[in-house]
């Protein structure tokens, strides 16, 4: 049976189904808190993105921003889907290597890459290093000289666009820690340095205006700025970027307050804007790369928790506490992010009219996963399933209070597979040394 609410979900015997698997059975088999990914949703979204490019007949790459959720299994799926990936640390490069991910399909980002990370990237032949600042240009030059080799680079520019999203999720405004500013000609200066450097092959330009954005406008403006800059550089330096990388940031639905357009519609608008502007400016149509993280992985993820204690504060609120919280999903505490959930073992039961608050088990009053939600009457042992937790959830997990990081399971075509084990107490003290 398919339930129509803000999230469409399938149920069987009153249980929430994920990817053809009973979520309550998953919770009992692997324990909770548990992160479950419906892999078919990941593949589907990638294919939606690809179709838009193909319909518009442009050269493209879909580069998964793996910071949203990086694991060996995730990189394996990206390899199967023939995607590029964007990595931002030695740890993500290492993990991609463990997955045998093809390094030529890797973009290396970051606003303070270390020499060790640059060496690792260059030695492993990553496809492109996305330069973020002048210090990095000189570090990379040293690394390339020492290793006597060359690499592809792109310049990350700050287009001077403030996206409408949480302040912590804005990156494209002039006052941003990321990238070369266009306005003050930092970007132009960086371009000259790279063009003069025989060890750096300047592939293109990159801009990322922020994350969880709902309006198309900002993306279109940033895309047009990239084309304008390309045209300007073509005229001034006889150099035209082969690639325009427009970043990610396409917003997804977390709660009933969100009403985003389909992620691929952002891309369609961007591609059309780049085609039109390139034509107007009389420059060759570049290849267009996107770097979505959240929109690929977010809606595919579900967090399962077991309900424990309950506290009713007379006439004010009822707190229903689960066995996870800010350690496996910091987003509500960090960004006041809203989520929706169901009781997975009572998935078709009518919710009560009085809302409850879902609290986590961490020693912080701010550890509230959902402020207000109408659920059927809960009891200890019920399984709470939160929707759309796949991006920046496990990826930002911590061991606060020395709670264990959850296990992660992939489901597809009715099969489930453990892809990250639950941490053990031994794991917690593995790096500790006695004093
Ligand atoms: C450079 C860059 N590319 C891509 C992304 C992915 O963003 P999102 O997960 O919102 O698609 C980010 C994160 O904001 C980013 O910093
Ligand atoms: N972690 C943020 C997004 C940051 C995107 C990375 N630049 C979130 O959960 O919304």
Automatic annotation (TrEMBL):
Residue sites binding substrate per the record: 294, 331, 335, 364, 392
GO MF term list: diaminopimelate decarboxylase activity; pyridoxal phosphate binding
Domain Orn/DAP/Arg decarboxylase 2 N-terminal: 40-297
EC number(s) stated in the UniProt entry for this protein: 4.1.1.20
Family annotation (Pfam families): Orn_Arg_deC_N (PF02784)
Pathway: Amino-acid biosynthesis; L-lysine biosynthesis via DAP pathway; L-lysine from DL-2,6-diaminopimelate: step 1/1
SUPFAM superfamilies: Alanine racemase C-terminal domain-like (SSF50621), PLP-binding barrel (SSF51419)
Residues with N6-(pyridoxal phosphate)lysine modification: 67
UniProt keyword list: Amino-acid biosynthesis, Decarboxylase, Lyase, Lysine biosynthesis, Pyridoxal phosphate
UniProt binding sites for pyridoxal 5'-phosphate: 249, 291-294, 392
Active-site feature positions: 363 (proton donor)
Catalytic activity: meso-2,6-diaminopimelate + H(+) = L-lysine + CO2
Signal peptide, first to last residue: none
Protein's GO biological process: lysine biosynthetic process via diaminopimelate
Keyword check for Plastid: no
Cofactors that this protein relies on: pyridoxal 5'-phosphate
Stored HAMAP family: LysA (MF_02120)
Quaternary structure, from the entry: Homodimer.
UniProt record similarity statement: Belongs to the Orn/Lys/Arg decarboxylase class-II family. LysA subfamily.
Name the UniProt record assigns to this protein: Diaminopimelate decarboxylase
Species the sequence originates in: Apilactobacillus ozensis DSM 23829 = JCM 17196
Lineage: Bacteria, Bacillati, Bacillota, Bacilli, Lactobacillales
């Amino acid at each position: 049976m398919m339930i129509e609410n803000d999230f469409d979900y399938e149920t069987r015997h009153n249980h929430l189904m994920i990817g053809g698997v009973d979520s309550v059975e998953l919770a009992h088999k692997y324990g909770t808190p548990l992160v479950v990914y419906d892999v078919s949703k990941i593949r589907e979204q990638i294919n939606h993105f690809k179709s838009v490019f193909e319909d518009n007949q442009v050269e493209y790459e879909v580069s998964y921003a793996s910071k949203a959720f990086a694991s060996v299994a995730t990189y394996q799926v990206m390899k199967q889907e023939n995607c590029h990936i964007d990595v931002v640390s030695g740890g993500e490069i290492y993990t991609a290597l463990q997955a045998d991910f093809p390094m030529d399909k890797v973009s290396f980002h970051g606003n303070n890459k270390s020499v060790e990370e640059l060496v690792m990237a260059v030695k492993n032949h990553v496809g492109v290093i996305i330069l973020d600042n002048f210090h990095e240009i000189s570090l990379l030059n040293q690394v390339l000289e020492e290793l006597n080799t060359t690499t592809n680079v792109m310049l990350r520019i700050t287009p001077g666009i403030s996206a409408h999203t949480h302040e912590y999720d804005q990156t494209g405004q002039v006052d941003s820690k990321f990238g070369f500013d266009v306005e003050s000609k930092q970007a132009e200066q960086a371009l000259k340095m790279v063009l003069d450097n025989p060890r750096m092959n300047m592939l293109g330009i990159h801009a990322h205006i922020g994350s969880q954005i709902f309006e198309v406008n900002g993306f279109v403006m940033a895309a047009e700025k990239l084309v304008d800059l390309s045209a300007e550089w073509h005229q001034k330096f006889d150099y035209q970027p082969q690639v325009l990388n427009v970043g990610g940031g396409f917003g997804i639905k977390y709660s009933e307050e969100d009403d985003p357009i389909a992620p691929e519609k952002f891309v369609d608008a961007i591609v059309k804007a780049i085609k039109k502007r390139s034509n107007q400016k009389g420059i060759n149509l570049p290849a267009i790369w996107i770097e979505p993280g959240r929109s690929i992985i977010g809606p595919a993820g579900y967090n399962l928790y077991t309900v424990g204690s309950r506290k009713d504060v007379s006439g004010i609120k009822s707190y229903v506490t689960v066995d996870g919280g800010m350690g496996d999903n910091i987003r509500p505490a960090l960004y006041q992010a809203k989520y929706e959930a169901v009781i997975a073992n009572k998935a078709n039961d009518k919710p009560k009219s009085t809302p409850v608050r879902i609290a986590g088990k961490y020693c912080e009053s701010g550890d509230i996963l959902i402020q207000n939600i109408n659920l059927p009457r809960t009891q200890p042992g019920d399984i709470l399933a939160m929707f759309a937790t796949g991006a920046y959830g496990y990826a930002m997990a911590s061991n606060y209070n020395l709670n264990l990081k959850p296990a992660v399971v992939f489901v597809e075509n009715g099969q489930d597979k453990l892809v990250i084990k639950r941490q053990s107490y031994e794991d917690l003290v593995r790096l500790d040394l006695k004093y």
